[in-house]
Every structure is written in structure tokens, then in C-alpha cells.
# Entry
Amino acid sequence: MCYLKTFDPTVPMAYFVCVMSICVFTVNPYLQGCALLGGVVLLLCIKKKKALRTLALCTAIIAVMGLTNPIFVHRGLTDLFYIGKDPYTLEALLYGLSLGCSIACLIIWFSVWGTIVTQDDILAVFGKRMPKTALVISMILGFIPKLRKQYSELAHAHIGTGGSRRKSLHRTAKLFIACLAYESERVMDISVSMKARGYGLKKRTHAESRRFRKSDAAAIAFCLALCITCYVFIGTEKLDYWYYPRLSPGGFDPAGVGCYLLLCICPLFFIIKEKTLWRYCPAKT
# Structure
């Protein structure tokens, strides 16, 4: 990830906050489309084939949310058909798809976040002022991947020692409890070790010193400018969109949607630049 690691860790954190703070609180399909487009392309560039499983999960979530929402919500004036006496409306269908897109955007962007922003980056940014909070956040973010890895190792060990290969609830529960016991003991050992080393003391020194450069400040200012511009358009109701009782006739402002699209795809410029330099500018021998 050298094309994004050239910046200070504060830059990708600020960028993800700007992107996700907009896509979470909006039901505008144009903004959601921008978030999905930027997130999918960025995830494919970073994880490549490993991203297909995440994208398949997001597709399933969008489809399930869209198809099931009109079964429980019967608002809307455009009836497609009836399930018994209850109408299956177009507005409820599209609103369900919108909710599914919001969840999919969060999953995709958090997946990108977990790849780019490491635990060391979190400790580097918040470790000096909030060392305990930074340690807790970094441990929480790394808990699920480590738990999955440990579960896989225990499952292979269980099969290797003559255990059954058949997946059952009893086998899964036994392995999961073993994983939790292992992780709990590991966390206790880490906390005792960090306390013994004086973690959190005021006079604690930092092994890694990162300088905040002008390019980092310019990148954060660029992201904040685009984010604030989008919020201005949202606040002035130029990007308002509603589904009930009929679909909104507006909600598309070229300037507002363009700003958010630029915000979502701006990391691609660094990716393209890095790959172009790597391919066409070989080192001189």
C-alpha cells in the first residue's frame, strides 16, 4: 500500500471519516452510487480477488433488503402487485435497496479502512494524547481478524488430532469457546506487559517519530473542502431525496454529486500515479 502510506496516518483517517459520514446519513441514490463506485474500485485495487467475497456479501445484503422491505412496509402509491391484501409498492422496494446500499457502503469502506489503517497507525496518531484509548481501539479492530485466524488454526488442529470434519453446532461452539479463552488470556498478558513497561505515563517516549508535512496538510484540507461543500449542498436541500409517498423528482445537483464523486475516487489518482511510475520509470542502474 505504498501509494497511500506516503501520507501521515492522519490523512487516511480523516479521508475515511469524511466519506463515511456522508454515505451513512443520506438516502440519496446518487450519493450512494458514488460511494459504492469509489469503494468497490478501491477495494478491488487493494485486495483484488480477495475482495470478491466481500462484494458478494454486499450484493446479497442489497438484494435481501430490497426484496423484503415491501413485505413489511406498505407505504407508497405505486403498487406493483399484492401479497394477500397488502400491496407490494415500488417506493418500498427502492427504499429497501437504498438501505441495503448504505449497509454495503459501510462494509466496503470499513474493509478498505482495515487494510490501509493499521493498528500502528492508530497508535501513532492517538498514542501520545490518548494512549489507553488508542490501545483499546487498536485491539478492538484487530480482534476479529485474529479470532478468525485462531479459529481456523484450532479447526485444523481438531481435524488433525482425529476430530470429526463434519461441521456441527457442538463443534463450532467448542472451538469458539476455546478461541475466546485463548484471546482473553492473550489480552490479559498484553495488558500486564504494557503496564510493566510504563505505557500511558506522561513521560513515555515514542519509538516512531513521524513528521506532519505540507503535503499531508494539503491532502486533509482538500478532503475537508470537498466534505464541507457536500454538506453545504445537503444543508441547502439541493441533494434532498425522498421515497414516500412518491419518488422525489429531484435530488441531483451536478456540483454536489460531482464533489462527492471526486472525494470517493481521489485515492485512485495516487494508485494510477504509483503504478504508472513503477511501470514506465524504471530505476537507473
